[in-house]
Structure formats: C-alpha cells, structure tokens
Design brief:
CATH architecture of the largest domain: Up-down Bundle
Strand order of the largest sheet: 1-9-6-4-2-3
Shape: globular
Largest sheet: 6 strands, parallel
Number of domains: 2
Radius of gyration: 20 Å
Structural class: alpha/beta
Bound molecules: nicotinamide-adenine-dinucleotide, zinc ion
CATH class of the largest domain: Mainly Alpha
Number of strands: 9
Distance between the termini: 45 Å
C-alpha cells in the first residue's frame, strides 16, 4: 500500500540547556565500546577559541578542523571519508559535528558515506541511502537552519545543490547549548536565524501545511519575533535555539517555498551563503509573502543589518539563466508555494524579473 502519511524520523536524544555541552563527554562514554575512536569534525573558527580546548577527546579520538568558508561540497565529504578510513584503519565509533549548518551537514554526510559505497554525489536526492550510518551527534554553534533536526544533509554537488535526504541522515543525538551560539557575530547570526523565520513563513503559507507543521511553525515564528523585534537580552540565545529546533520540526512535515527556490539559484551560481541568499531573495518576494517581507524589513532595521544590493547586477545572461534553471527545477517548493498549476504562474520571465531585482 502506498504510504499516505510521512512516517517521520526524528532525533531520538536531545539535550538542551546552558552549559549542556559539558555533558557530551558522558553521553559519548555511554556509546563508546572501548574500541574504535570518535571523530570530531569541528568548525575551524573554534581552533583558536576556548571551545577547542573543551572537546571531550578520549583515547584514539581524532579531531579534524573543517573549513566552511564555502558551503560543503560532495567532494569535501568524499575526502573526509577517505581520510577517516585511513586514519582510523576502519570505521570510527561515531562522528561528532560541531558548527553551523555546514559542519552539521558534513558530519551527517560523512557518517552516511562511511557505510554506503561510492561518492556523496551518488546519494543527493531522496531515500537513496541503503545502509544505516555510523553513530552521529550534532552540536550547533549557529541557530536557524534546523539542520540539527532535519533528515537532510545539504551539499553542493557536480550537478546541483541538493540534500542527501533519508531517515538515516537524522542525528542520533543533538546537544543544544545556547552558550555555543552566544558569540556568533552579526550579520551571520542574523542571516542564519532568518533561515528559520523564512522556513516558517514559507511553510505556514504553503499548500503542504498540516497541524503538525503549523504547531511547530507558529511557535518558531513567535520565538523569532521575540528575538528580533526586541533588543537582545539574556534569554535571546535560548529562544533562538528553540526557534531553530521548532522550525526544523515544522519543515520536516511540510516544505519551503519561493524564497528557498530562488535562494538556491543565488547560492549555486553566485556562491552566496544560504542565510544571506535567503535574505536577498526574500526581500524581493512581497508578491508571495507580503506581511512577512514587511516584518523582515522591520527586523533588519531594528537589528541594524544591511543587506547587499544588486547582487545579480554583475551576473552574465548565462548565469541568470542558470539561476532560473536551478530555481525552477525545485518542483515541490513551487507546488507548496503556488499549488499544482505553479508552472503557469511561475514562468522563466517572472523568475528573471525577480532575480534582476535582487
Ligand atoms: P554555516 O555553518 O555555513 O557557517 C557560516 C559561517 O559562520 C562560517 O564561516 C562558520 O565558520 C561561521 N560560524 C559558525 N558558528 C560560529 C560561531 N558560533 N561563531 C562565529 N562563527 C561561526 O552557517 P549556517 O547558516 O548555520 O548553515 C548554512 C548551511 O546549512 C548551508 O550549507 C545550507 O545549505 C545548510 N542548510 C542545511 C539544512 C538542513 O536541514 N540540513 C537546512 C538549511 C540550511
Ligand atoms: Zn533554509
């Protein structure tokens, strides 16, 4: 029988709270079997920060700093998998990813490719993974993407930017410690947080919406408003971290829309980071999300964030066409945004006009 309702895979173990990072050692020790080591993939922004010294490395555990100045690629995953296999002489006991969405996605993908043959690019798509991953834990240091709860690991591949979507992608454990996002600088903190805001706006306005998605989406949206329509206070990081979690849960049972579709084109062709690309795209999508765009502009103003203007103005005609190809290839996103006759309403000309304003 066809599956009518999604049987959602969720993260089975979650620890939340200020200072909860200190518990990671104990959590891993319950999983250790005395043999294979853990590999810590950690965002290299922490190489010279206090967090680097607080990593609970034991025995033969390996620490690999990862650089995510560019968003993760399938080739980066393949390299890491090869290095880990060589270094550990086999499978590690598990992977711990510590960083923003990029490092968390790398950690998820590496854990999958350690047990599934071939290249990460072979698995970009839906449910192509055959074997369960090695144990993998995620520790966010930026909040907004929802990568800590999602069933995807988004990667730039040889053909396009697309996630490895599977039940096996989901982390076995996440550690949500608001202290770890405290020092994330603006505008990065804001851009990443807005990913959550847009997830919710797109899901709540979408045709895929159901009560599960709405419940989490509305809560996440409220939390984003509490954080960004007010001055920052000591509760902001906790709220933002929970917004990201709820936003991720909301989107897991619905879908994003026009903003993410257009944003993917900007990232793929112009290399804009996801959070920034979303902000640039969303700002021009009044015709889809009028109230949301106005509220977003208020947040920009209150948080004193300036968006770059004219990011597509230097793009060649060929680049513009490629952006349109990428955006319009994302059927489910447009279906969610505009319904089954989306192709009549979202033409190449309309997409070109929107891009030319960004
Ligand atoms: P990121 O992980 O790409 O990091 C952005 C920058 O911030 C990097 O330079 C990083 O080194 C730095 N950084 C991270 N934590 C920091 C901290 N605490 N202090 C200072 N600097 C810090 O940013 P992101 O917005 O969290 O993630 C974006 C990525 O997530 C994209 O690749 C996107 O495709 C992906 N994504 C994944 C999902 C999913 O469900 N898997 C959802 C949305 C987006
Ligand atoms: Zn997103």
């Amino acid at each position: 029988m066809a599956q009518a309702f999604r049987n959602l895979a969720v993260v089975p173990r979650v620890v939340f709270g200020r200072g909860s990072f200190e518990q990671l050692d104990g959590i891993l020790s319950e999983v250790r079997d005395g043999g294979a080591p853990f590999v810590f993939l950690v965002d290299d922004v922490f190489a010279r920060r206090d967090l680097g010294a607080r990593l609970p490395l034991r025995g033969d555990d390996r620490l690999m700093w990862v650089n995510v100045d560019r968003e993760p690629r399938t080739s980066h995953v393949d390299e890491l998998v090869q290095r880990i296999r060589q270094d550990c002489g086999g499978l590690p006991r598990g992977i711990v990813g510590i960083g923003g969405g990029s490092v968390m996605d790398l950690a998820k993908a590496v854990s999958l490719l350690l047990t599934n043959p071939g290249s990460a690019a072979d698995y970009q798509g839906w449910d192509l993974i055959r074997h369960r991953a090695v144990y993998h834990a995620g520790v966010p240091t930026l909040s907004g993407t929802g990568a800590e709860v999602s069933r995807t690991a988004v990667l730039i591949g040889p053909q396009r930017k697309l996630g490895i979507n599977s039940d096996h992608t989901v982390f076995d454990q996440v550690v949500l410690d608001p202290e770890l996002i405290r020092d994330a600088p603006d505008p990065q903190r804001f851009h990443t947080a807005m990913d959550c805001y847009f997830h919710c706006i797109e899901a709540l306005a979408g045709t895929y919406l159901n009560a599960f998605s709405r419940a989490y989406g509305e809560k996440a949206l409220d939390l984003c408003r509490e954080v960004f329509l007010h001055e920052r206070d000591e509760s902001s990081d906790e709220k933002l971290m929970m917004a990201s979690y709820c936003g991720g849960m909301s989107i897991a049972y619905s879908q994003v829309g026009a903003c993410h579709a257009m944003s993917y084109g900007l990232s793929y062709v112009l290399g804009l980071r996801h959070g920034l690309a979303n902000c640039v795209a969303f700002n021009q999508l009044e015709e889809f999300y009028r109230a949301g765009v106005h509220e977003f502009r208020r947040m920009l103003e209150l948080q004193r964030i300036e968006l770059p203007q004219g990011v597509t103005h230097e793009a060649s005609a060929a680049q513009l066409e490629k952006m349109i190809d990428v955006a319009l290839s994302l059927d489910p996103l447009w279906l969610n945004c505009l319904g089954p006759d989306w192709k009549d309403r979202m033409t190449r000309d309309r997409a070109r006009e929107l891009y030319s304003r960004m």
